[in-house]
Amino acid sequence: MTPTRSLRAASLLLGLFPLLHAQQNRDLSVKTVPPAATGQRPTSVPRSYALVIGIAKYQNLAPNQNLQFSERDADSMFSILISPEGGSFPPENVHRLTGSRATLANIRHELEEWLPSVTRDDDRVLVYFAGHGFVIDGRAYLAPYDIRTDNIAATAYPMQTLGAVIGGKIRGKWKVLLTDACHSGAISPEATAAFNGGLLQLDKSIFVLSASRDREQSFESADWGGGHGIFTYYVERGLSGAADDDGNGIVTADELAEYVHTNVRKDTGGRQNPVSEAGSYDPKMQLAYVPASAKPDAPPPPKFGTLIIESNMDGVEVFVDGKSQGVVNKAKPLRLEGMAPGTHQVQGVKLGYEPDGPRDEVVYPGDERTISIKIQFVRRRPKAALDDLNHGLEYYNKGSADNYKKAAELFQKALDEDPTYSQAALYLGRTYNALFDQDKAEQYFRKALEIDPDYVEAHASFAGMLVDKGATDEAIRQLDAALSRDRNYGLAYYLLAYAYCLKDDYPQSIDAARQAIRLIPNKAESYFWLAESLHLSGKLDDAKRSYNDYLRLSNFDSHFAGQLNYWVLGFLIGHGRKSRASVHDIWKDLRSLAYFGLCDCDRQLKQFDAAIQECRTSLTYDADDPRTHYLLGLTLAMKAQATQSLGPLAAASEHFRDMLRLNPDMPEAPDVKKMLANYDQLLKGN
What is the pLDDT of residue 246? Predict the structure, then answer.
């Protein structure tokens, strides 16, 4: 018997699920996309997994051999794959290796261990690679971050192995390999030919779409979407719906291949020609689901056009038809190729300024059109609105239900006085979340983002609330949106660590927690979620170090924490306060959980005395937690068995009885009752 430690953490911090709740949607083979048009059947989306790899700067290559945009390409692919208006992959099922994480060892692990361990025969599986390809002795290789050109065969990943793994070890009915390699002439034309030829010799049940054909280079430039490989730029646009040639709301393999080939060839003047092998793969395999693009009665457009967006200011985010297309700077226009002919809504936004648009702009087949975004007016707030917001913050920062209600009234007044006051909407969202009114909280978080779509803090706060209510997939999408706008926003990484841990995706949780620690080294809670995921991954010694880091950094007086509204400072929007806010503050809950984690680590390491002390310390923060009593009883019983001594059994029995008193319905209760009967017999006979 082992304690389900992570679930205890989730129940305390979320307060929405029973102690041993099942993970939602983890094993469902399909989900349903709503019909795109009247009379059209809903579409079944198979269970889906993806590995996304992007390397720009290599550990051992010369500076002139490095790339610029491969990691940005990988980030864009991740975003479109997890989007409901795109790949519709569950976020925890998309693993991303970029930069220094894309080592040969990590690529091998993901391809040869993770994907074969999780995929099934009816699944959809996609592997994306952006970086260099190399050839040695006629054999093609993908170049990991740590490749050495003096020993390519031993330090790169063979295409032959990739084909065998995807074709044989990884299961699935639809398998996709997208490669954007051979950039910028880094290898010779002969090697490029061998590399691309190797791609097309892979197992024919795989849909392979490669960036270029024999002897061609693959180009990348700031001209495409603000900085992309042109191949990936059009793959991403195609999966967003532009490739939906028949207008049924689904992008198939053949549609994507045709769209990407047509536009890449056009934009490079025929110098780059993406290739897909017409093998035995299902040409109707579904790669993306975009109901909004469905046009059941409209013929496919014969050609595409281009929008060139320029701006009078730096850092202006561009939205086309409600979707972010990237950021445009004053000296660097944003090119949007492959636009379907017709009318599109264009808007430029910058936090703190009045937006330009949305306004209708027409795209004509085969034409380029330049659009000037002018951000001119700083948003000026009425003094009454500013005063109401500041007065509301005074109440908000004091905490308690009564103060939150007063704060909500003042924030609402500020928003009524200035309907564009996104900060007032944000704090209304936070306040209603603190009052456990999540419907209103979501309404105002969305309002803040409607006013200012690039409001990074609002994306993160909304994500925190979504995690609280168990909507972790949408939370991850909101955090991805925040990080696409600010890669150094440490709080978003912290929340990602939290969300991925709750989804049992411990590797991604660990990566996100380490990013958060790098950016906010003194934020204690990041160490907590790092410790949780290390613990639940079986890395017990590393977990102990991180639990102790959390305890050291959070070692201050809880009354002081309460005065500072600790849960708001630590979590922005009140994480965990749904658990037992009227009894314990989050500081006590987390310290209790950290000592619980240490106890379980030491129990598994058979360091029983240390574990017993840690469990007892956990109970000083939360004396009525049945799971801690269970773990302490279990540890004492294991010590008794290891030492062949009956001494610890009396104490173990006491804690097991406390567990049954506090929660007689725990799943372990029947076994505990049997153990208690045996212990009573042993203790009586002694």
Answer: 81
